[in-house]
Amino acid sequence: MCTPEPTCPENATICSGTSCLVPRDPFNDILNVVMSTTLTILLALVMFSMGCTVEARKLWVHIRRPWGIFIGFLCQFGIMPFTAFALSLIFNVLPVQAIVIIVMGCCPGGSSSNVFCYWLDGDMDLSISMTACSSILALGMMPLCLFIYTSAWTSGDAIQIPYDSIGITLVSLLVPVALGIYTKHRWPNAAKKILKVGSVVGILLIVIIAVIGGVLYQSSWTISPSLWIIGTIYPFIGFGLGFLLARFVGQPWYRCRTIALETGMQNAQLASTITQLSFTPAELEVMFAFPLIYSIFQLVVAVVAVGIHYLIKQCRQKKSADEDGEGTVEDQNKQNHALENGGFHCDENGNSEDKDKGTKL
Fold this sequence. Notes:
single chain; mainly alpha; two-stranded antiparallel sheet
């Protein structure tokens, strides 16, 4: 019985016996282009809607008195790079893996923090100003931090900083936010509706990044367990240290939540771009998944924080409702004033007000 001779695929370019050279499947390339285009549009819409929460006057106050921005700067370019360096030493990872961990720690804050700041009733003016300032400062601070912390594993010029990507990220942040601020100033009622739509689109954006990113880079998930462990605990450390430092210097609760988000939520897309530009395909196989792992767990931490925050709000509201009608009116006013000072009851911009004194806390 004769066996049929093997035939080459129709799209083969070179055939030699049973060996055929088939062009690379363009599916991932097409998906990557579609994802980049879709995410750019969604990100612009999200940042436009986030800008609709910002008042130019209050934003200017943060810029003139940048105490919160300065604390965020210490967290972003002080705590995070050093933590990455310490974790790399503690877990004794490979040199290229240590470098990608430090690259992740040196990146500026990501725009996802602005979305979660809204859900956490944080200070949106501070959040957006911190994201913008960290992106600007990253042009100088990223090379400096990488030079300091990666010198133990590689030479300083081995890592390429994509300044064009940082610039594009900065423009895609500032232009929609500026349009959102103008919209809030001219059409405040329309700004409220845009904000509701943008907050939903922000959650959709996060889900799309997680799903499509996993499909595009599914071959990179088989990596060292130490990278999984670091990628899991690193966001928790960033959120926790940012919150504690802000609270230590006396920041109110809503600003502590904002600074914690800006510290723990890094620009994972920028970290992925840096690693792609700086390392060979063989090195990328053992390191490229780390920014994806970090981005997944930073979202997990943020979602957990939102859940805890809303549970606390519900408990406080229920307690207030149970105590309604009990005691004198004066006692009730004292309780309400105490809740306002706790930082969980604030206006749409996250600012608590002392009604007796007429001044903001």
